[in-house]
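Following up on my earlier message about zinc ion. Here are the inputs again, as you asked, copied directly from the submission form:
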Amino acid sequence: METMLCATLPGDHTARLERRPVPRPGHGEVLLRMKASTICGSDIRCIYHEHLGKGPEGYQDGMIAGHEPCGQIVAAGEGCRRFGVGDRVIVYHISGCGVCNDCRRGYMISCTSEKWRRAYGWQRDGGMAEFLLAEEKDLVALPDALSYTDGAQVACGFGTVYEGLEKIGVSGNDAVLVTGLGPVGLAAAVLARKLGARQIIGVEFLDERLRIAGALALDGKPLFDAVLKSGDDNVEQVRALTGGAGVERAVECSANAAARNAALRATRKWGKMVMLGEGGSMSLNPSPDMLHEQKTLVGSWVTSTWKMEELVERLVAWDLHPEMLVTHRFPLEKVADAYALMASGKCGKVAVCFDEELK
Ligand SMILES: [Zn+2]
Ligand SMILES: [Zn+2]
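Thanks, got it. Here's what our run produced:
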């Protein structure tokens, strides 16, 4: 095949399809046949409506979109050390320099090299295409027990959530509050449940998302113990649901200022909260909100390659399939509909799929 179908985001609420030459892998690179490419909230926030992102979130005009790619290697360049033709792989979505301190920790997301740090679907071509050129060092093996659509969600959403939950620690001791029930918030609830959380409460503004969250089940039980419409009384509601104490752990995925404050205040004394939602602001009264209550507030940005490998292993052990959160699948030819639906928010996770993943 000489050319391939691919999609770019011009920044005017559309996705544009075009044909381009199929790339050839160079040294240390592989060519993937794309199988699943999911859409992230950040694609909508920073690229789809308007090219708003700066720095690491700066989309370079004309780049093939999609930073949650999963596929199968169909060609490998010279010098590949671990992966080869036929391997099923997830792509860690930022290709870092590999040798700065952050890259050496496995966190290519915060690579400090201006020249070499390039995110798939932002500063280098991403997964909304029939084929993707990737660097071998950015790959994570996809076990046979997981589908490509499972894998695409590990690439950004589930990996990001797993990292955040590991930073605050979640166990059977904990009631967990999740604010913002888009795909990231739903992933937080799913992983918290598998880590043993004894109670999970969700807060969301959009009715469609409340409905989706309320209908989700895991291992034969409702995923959430309660889903609350966001409002002024959320802190009181959460306290009432937790015997007056508040939750041990909170996971903030909405980026909404009021929700952030509510999450922090609904976290009990000695509790911990992680912030995953990007953008926006927050006002804080450090003494009453944190110091006097002995609370820990942490920020978390994506994850590392080794933690992604660990998550993939646990997904298999837990028999957990992230594709459970995918509500809509589209072929690449209908990529414009896929982005428009994601932009409407009236959905769970939206995936562009190929071949056997296009059920
Ligand atoms: Zn993302
Ligand atoms: Zn680096």
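One observation from looking it over: The first strand starts at residue 3 and ends at 8. Hope that helps, and feel free to reply on this thread.
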